[in-house]
Design a protein that fits this description.
globular; Rossmann fold; single chain; 8 helices
Length: 210
């Protein structure tokens, strides 16, 4: 049985680390797992990632950013996600369409109708579960300050990152059955244990690779 899991959260939440830890754990348990990311995951997506996130790159409107992000997403869904799910694999995706709603929508003020239309076009596959790794803005920004690879969104204002977090809260309220809120303030190992506990009921219904 296929399973589509996504990870969301503010930059600095540790969600990418948790996506990797989950993939490693599930593979060790005998599951057939595909781990990928957005933007990226395909040759086109990785090229567009460089354009989108380059710190100091050409100025970009929220609309342009969302369109480029959606182009990368559409390619990933077509080339990677759908084929993997048809093969009954577990797909773990680091960011998906919810990120556009939170960042370009809530964070940068792109009209919700535009965001929803782009989602319908580029992201027709709904995740089975979305793990929202949540940390306060101050902790997330503190973690980002220790990085050497800050992107154009990492260096936005505290107010921007607060709006992003509020955008996620709205998405969770709209689809509470899909979201699992995870406290990301603990150690990576402790957060991973929490995720595995939350996923346990689903895994009991997901057969291992033969």
């Amino acid at each position: 049985m296929p399973l589509f899991l996504t990870f969301e959260g503010p930059d600095g939440s540790g969600k990418s680390t948790q996506a990797r830890l989950l993939a490693d754990e599930l593979r060790a348990r005998g599951h057939d797992v595909l781990l990928t990311r957005e933007p990226g995951g395909t040759p086109l997506g990785e090229q567009l990632r460089e354009v989108l996130l380059a710190h100091g790159g050409a100025p970009m409107t929220p609309t342009a950013m969302a369109l480029i992000m959606s182009a990368a997403r559409a390619q990933l869904v077509h080339d990677v996600i759908k084929p993997a799910l048809r093969s009954d694999r577990i797909v773990i995706l680091d960011r998906y369409a919810d990120s556009t709603s939170a960042y370009q929508g809530a964070g940068l003020g792109l009209d919700r109708e535009i965001v929803d239309r782009l989602r319908a076009i580029a992201a027709p596959v709904r995740p089975d579960l979305t793990f929202y790794v949540d940390v306060p803005e101050e902790i997330a920004l503190g973690r980002l300050s220790d990085r050497n690879d800050a992107n154009r969104l990492d260096v936005e204002t505290v107010a921007f990152h607060r709006r992003v977090r509020e955008g996620y809260e709205q998405l969770i309220a709209e689809e509470p059955d899909r979201w699992v809120r995870i406290d990301g303030t603990g150690t990576p190992d402790r957060v991973h244990v929490t995720i595995m506990q939350a996923l346990a009921p689903v895994l009991r219904q997901t057969p291992k690779a033969s």
